[in-house]
Amino acid sequence: MKVEFSPAFILHQRPYRETSLLVDVFSQQFGRQSLIAKGIRKTKRSQQGIMQLYQPLLLSWSGYGDLHTLTAVEAASARYVLKNNASLCGLYINELLIRFLAVAQPESEIYHAYELALDGLQQQADDEVVLRLFEKRLLLQLGYGLVLDKESETGLPIEATARYLYQANKGLKQCLKADNRATISGRSLQHLIDETGFDQTSLQEIKQLMRSVLNYYLDGRPLQSRQLFAEMQKYASKP
After folding, report:
1. Which segments within 160-206 are labelled E, that is strand?
2. Can you tell me the mean pLDDT for 28-51?
């Protein structure tokens, strides 16, 4: 297999042997790929400098099997600059892609959603809104789209003042009595459907909903980026 100058982003990289890197990338045309960047750590700093997260790249590689050799790299455009909490949000999105994307499966719509998310984070839009919309679009394109406008059993449309429980394998169910589990109002669900009108209450409820659904498909395996974010918040809260 030989690929020449495919638009791509680096999702994660780690040292390999003395001078090389193992690089997880998300290619617009070829999906998630694992590449060896041979000798990159002993090249000029200008060459190493473009091998960064959130940098749009044009990558070439060759080889067979699950691990290919990077043969050329160029910057496609300016790097997305994510500051403060936005940088942690970027790590979280990258980890979701690594965990959810199948190897070598093209996902052009998810690639576009990723670019939108990076742009939103760079423009310092509301981080919570950017993350929730990316999660929603990711699940939709993977075939796990959320049915948010009606109850799963009755087919009745949601009501703004009613409260619902969302089960990833079943859908929405109205809660007629007090429920200790995290529920979400019809009003908050409508905000997620419309992708607008968010406020602090709806964002908090939507966050709980998306976390529950993602945990289901992750089989309860924790995300390192979530743990990192929690640790940094704890450190920041200390006097």
Report:
1. 163-167, 171-174, 184-185
2. 79
